[in-house]
Design a protein that fits this description.
alpha+beta; Rossmann fold; 2 domains; four-stranded mixed β-sheet; 6 helices; about 25% helix; about 15% strand
């Protein structure tokens, strides 16, 4: 994409690959797939939009500082558990002014995951899930991946009586419409949702933009 020939653009947003930044990745930083961040910077400089937003994972402070220096703004850390029961910590760099931390939604009262997925709503434990990742399709045994107890509802451990979340439940954890990813295989649905954003977090940030 060459930004110079494009018409005026109000907003550019994206997230460069996180695998070489992530603590679960290979640690290659800007030498790995995350080097595509510089393409985001190039497009920003060519297009000069009114607003921009970049999302990525929690990473080494030295890499975070490189991104901060390149974009000229400090990141905002937002955890998705303000919207859904998922401990998804992410960094957001944006020039949209005055973005505030979201307040806690009581999703256990029917405003989020339970009602959206028709999962049992009377829980002995109201536990928030670990982060949904792109490797969720590999299963849940011997891992910290989210699981649902077949007896109690929400759980975040590895008891025997438990099951994986369905693709629809993963969509709800990312506040994606039901069946939105139902155009690819089940494995690819899990990968897409694990790599994606919590939509309500993005909507919260965009709510501060004025066009």
């Amino acid at each position: 994409v060459k930004g110079a020939g494009l018409p005026k653009i109000d907003l550019i947003y994206g997230g460069s690959p996180c695998q070489s930044f992530s603590r679960a990745g290979d640690g290659s930083g800007f030498d790995g797939s995350s080097k595509l961040f510089w393409e985001f910077v190039r497009v920003l400089n060519e297009v000069k939009p009114t607003y921009f937003l970049l999302e990525n994972v929690i990473m080494k402070k030295e890499w975070e500082q490189v991104i901060t220096d390149a974009l000229g703004v400090e990141p905002i850390e937002i955890v998705s558990d303000k919207f859904v029961p998922q401990k998804r910590r992410r960094l957001y760099w944006t020039n949209i002014p005055n973005v505030k931390q979201p307040t806690v939604n009581d999703f256990f009262e029917g405003n989020g995951f339970p009602s959206a997925c028709n999962v049992k709503r009377e829980f002995k434990r109201k536990t928030v899930f670990n982060t949904l990742t792109a490797t969720y399709w590999k299963g849940i045994r011997g891992s910290g991946r989210p699981a649902i107890s077949t007896e109690e509802g929400f759980l975040d451990d590895n008891r025997d009586a438990h099951r994986m979340l369905t693709p629809n439940e993963c969509e709800a954890l990312q506040t994606v419409p039901k069946d939105y990813t139902d155009c690819v295989s089940k494995t690819q649905r899990y990968k897409m949702l694990g790599n994606g954003w919590t939509v309500d977090v993005i909507a919260h940030i965009f709510g501060y933009a004025q066009f």
